[in-house]
Amino acid sequence: MARRVVVGEIAGAYGVKGWVKIHSYTEPAENILDYSPWRLAGDKCESREYKVIAGRRHGQAVVARLEGVETRDQAVGLRFQKISVSRDQFPQLERGCYYWVDLIGLKVLTCSGVEFGTVAEMMATGANDVMVVRGERERLVPFVLDEYVKEVRLDEGIMIVDWDPDF
Predict the structure, then answer these.
(1) Which pLDDT value is given to residue 23?
(2) What are the tens digits of pLDDT across the range 17-33?
(3) Which domains does the chain have, with CATH numbers?
(4) Strand, helix or coil at 22?
(5) Distance CA 80, CA 77 (A)
(6) Cβ(161)–Cβ(141) under 8 Å?
(7) Which label site among 12, 48, 113, 133 has the fewest CB atoms less than 10 Å from its CB?
(8) Pick from 23, 10, 16: which is nearest to 60 by CA?
(9) 3-class SS at 143?
(10) Is the pTM above the cut of 0.90?
Protein backbone atom coordinates (compact mmCIF):
# COMPACT_ATOMS: atom_id res chain seq x y z
CA MET A 1 0.00 0.00 0.00
CA ALA A 2 1.35 3.41 -0.98
CA ARG A 3 2.26 5.93 1.70
CA ARG A 4 -0.33 8.66 2.23
CA VAL A 5 0.55 12.32 2.65
CA VAL A 6 -1.66 15.01 4.21
CA VAL A 7 -1.92 17.86 1.67
CA GLY A 8 -4.68 19.97 3.20
CA GLU A 9 -7.78 20.25 5.33
CA ILE A 10 -11.45 21.00 4.73
CA ALA A 11 -12.02 24.49 6.15
CA GLY A 12 -15.80 24.51 5.72
CA ALA A 13 -18.65 24.73 3.26
CA TYR A 14 -18.69 27.07 0.27
CA GLY A 15 -22.10 28.00 -1.06
CA VAL A 16 -25.20 25.81 -0.90
CA LYS A 17 -24.47 23.14 -3.53
CA GLY A 18 -21.98 20.97 -1.62
CA TRP A 19 -18.73 22.77 -2.46
CA VAL A 20 -16.03 22.82 0.22
CA LYS A 21 -13.43 25.44 1.08
CA ILE A 22 -9.92 24.02 1.38
CA HIS A 23 -6.90 25.01 3.43
CA SER A 24 -4.20 23.67 1.11
CA TYR A 25 -0.67 22.75 2.19
CA THR A 26 0.55 22.58 -1.43
CA GLU A 27 2.55 25.27 -3.18
CA PRO A 28 0.81 26.92 -4.98
CA ALA A 29 -2.40 26.25 -3.09
CA GLU A 30 -4.45 25.21 -6.13
CA ASN A 31 -2.05 22.33 -6.86
CA ILE A 32 -4.10 20.32 -4.38
CA LEU A 33 -6.71 20.02 -7.15
CA ASP A 34 -4.23 18.02 -9.26
CA TYR A 35 -4.57 15.06 -6.89
CA SER A 36 -7.59 12.78 -6.88
CA PRO A 37 -9.01 10.87 -5.16
CA TRP A 38 -8.69 12.48 -1.77
CA ARG A 39 -9.00 10.45 1.40
CA LEU A 40 -10.72 12.47 4.10
CA ALA A 41 -10.34 11.56 7.75
CA GLY A 42 -11.19 13.35 10.95
CA ASP A 43 -10.80 12.63 14.64
CA LYS A 44 -14.17 10.96 15.05
CA CYS A 45 -14.84 9.27 11.72
CA GLU A 46 -13.48 6.60 9.43
CA SER A 47 -11.60 7.72 6.37
CA ARG A 48 -13.37 7.80 3.05
CA GLU A 49 -12.22 8.53 -0.49
CA TYR A 50 -13.75 11.28 -2.61
CA LYS A 51 -13.12 12.00 -6.26
CA VAL A 52 -12.50 15.69 -7.01
CA ILE A 53 -14.92 16.64 -9.80
CA ALA A 54 -14.34 20.41 -9.92
CA GLY A 55 -12.27 23.05 -8.21
CA ARG A 56 -10.69 26.46 -8.51
CA ARG A 57 -8.80 29.15 -6.68
CA HIS A 58 -11.14 31.56 -4.91
CA GLY A 59 -9.24 34.56 -3.56
CA GLN A 60 -6.70 33.23 -1.07
CA ALA A 61 -8.59 29.95 -0.70
CA VAL A 62 -9.31 26.95 -2.89
CA VAL A 63 -12.81 25.57 -3.35
CA ALA A 64 -13.69 22.10 -4.61
CA ARG A 65 -16.66 19.93 -5.48
CA LEU A 66 -16.40 16.30 -4.38
CA GLU A 67 -18.31 13.40 -5.86
CA GLY A 68 -21.24 12.47 -3.62
CA VAL A 69 -21.30 15.77 -1.71
CA GLU A 70 -24.45 17.50 -2.94
CA THR A 71 -25.61 19.78 -0.11
CA ARG A 72 -24.24 22.43 2.19
CA ASP A 73 -25.01 20.19 5.19
CA GLN A 74 -22.89 17.39 3.72
CA ALA A 75 -20.07 19.87 3.07
CA VAL A 76 -20.29 21.23 6.63
CA GLY A 77 -20.01 17.65 7.90
CA LEU A 78 -16.57 17.38 6.29
CA ARG A 79 -15.15 20.42 8.13
CA PHE A 80 -11.77 19.88 9.83
CA GLN A 81 -11.14 16.60 8.01
CA LYS A 82 -7.59 16.13 6.76
CA ILE A 83 -7.05 15.56 3.04
CA SER A 84 -4.50 12.90 2.18
CA VAL A 85 -3.36 11.54 -1.16
CA SER A 86 -1.09 8.73 -2.23
CA ARG A 87 2.59 9.75 -2.33
CA ASP A 88 2.72 7.99 -5.72
CA GLN A 89 0.60 10.82 -7.19
CA PHE A 90 3.34 13.43 -6.67
CA PRO A 91 5.16 14.46 -9.85
CA GLN A 92 8.79 13.44 -10.28
CA LEU A 93 11.10 16.29 -9.29
CA GLU A 94 14.30 17.43 -10.94
CA ARG A 95 17.55 16.17 -9.48
CA GLY A 96 18.42 18.16 -6.35
CA CYS A 97 14.79 19.10 -5.58
CA TYR A 98 12.91 17.47 -2.70
CA TYR A 99 9.45 17.26 -1.23
CA TRP A 100 9.45 18.16 2.45
CA VAL A 101 7.60 14.97 3.27
CA ASP A 102 10.57 12.98 1.94
CA LEU A 103 13.03 14.87 4.16
CA ILE A 104 11.11 14.28 7.39
CA GLY A 105 12.68 11.38 9.26
CA LEU A 106 16.10 11.51 7.58
CA LYS A 107 19.05 11.00 9.92
CA VAL A 108 21.24 14.13 9.94
CA LEU A 109 25.02 13.81 10.18
CA THR A 110 27.76 16.43 9.93
CA CYS A 111 30.54 16.11 7.36
CA SER A 112 32.74 14.78 10.18
CA GLY A 113 30.16 12.15 11.21
CA VAL A 114 28.56 13.80 14.27
CA GLU A 115 24.92 12.64 14.47
CA PHE A 116 22.42 15.44 15.17
CA GLY A 117 19.24 13.35 15.15
CA THR A 118 16.45 13.29 12.58
CA VAL A 119 14.55 15.90 10.59
CA ALA A 120 11.37 16.35 12.65
CA GLU A 121 9.78 19.11 10.59
CA MET A 122 10.41 21.79 7.99
CA MET A 123 9.63 25.50 8.23
CA ALA A 124 9.37 28.19 5.57
CA THR A 125 10.96 31.37 6.88
CA GLY A 126 10.93 33.59 3.82
CA ALA A 127 14.68 33.72 3.27
CA ASN A 128 15.09 29.94 3.06
CA ASP A 129 13.55 26.77 4.43
CA VAL A 130 14.75 25.56 7.83
CA MET A 131 14.95 22.00 9.15
CA VAL A 132 14.04 21.27 12.73
CA VAL A 133 16.45 18.48 13.68
CA ARG A 134 15.76 16.64 16.94
CA GLY A 135 18.26 14.43 18.70
CA GLU A 136 19.96 14.94 22.05
CA ARG A 137 18.73 18.52 21.56
CA GLU A 138 16.86 20.50 18.94
CA ARG A 139 18.75 22.30 16.18
CA LEU A 140 17.53 24.63 13.43
CA VAL A 141 19.54 24.08 10.26
CA PRO A 142 18.92 26.11 7.08
CA PHE A 143 18.02 23.87 4.15
CA VAL A 144 20.42 25.49 1.68
CA LEU A 145 21.80 22.97 -0.76
CA ASP A 146 25.56 22.99 -1.36
CA GLU A 147 26.13 25.57 1.39
CA TYR A 148 24.83 23.81 4.54
CA VAL A 149 23.21 20.69 3.08
CA LYS A 150 25.98 18.81 1.34
CA GLU A 151 24.21 15.55 0.48
CA VAL A 152 20.71 14.12 0.62
CA ARG A 153 20.61 10.34 0.29
CA LEU A 154 16.92 9.48 0.33
CA ASP A 155 17.55 5.82 -0.47
CA GLU A 156 19.85 5.54 2.57
CA GLY A 157 17.70 7.75 4.82
CA ILE A 158 20.50 10.21 5.62
CA MET A 159 21.48 13.81 5.07
CA ILE A 160 24.99 15.25 5.40
CA VAL A 161 25.26 18.85 6.62
CA ASP A 162 28.07 21.33 7.12
CA TRP A 163 26.89 22.75 10.46
CA ASP A 164 28.69 23.44 13.72
CA PRO A 165 27.55 20.93 16.39
CA ASP A 166 27.63 23.75 18.97
CA PHE A 167 24.94 25.77 17.14
Answers:
(1) 95
(2) 999 999 999 989 999 99
(3) 4-89 (2.40.30.60), 100-161 (2.30.30.240)
(4) strand
(5) 9
(6) yes
(7) 113
(8) 23
(9) coil
(10) no
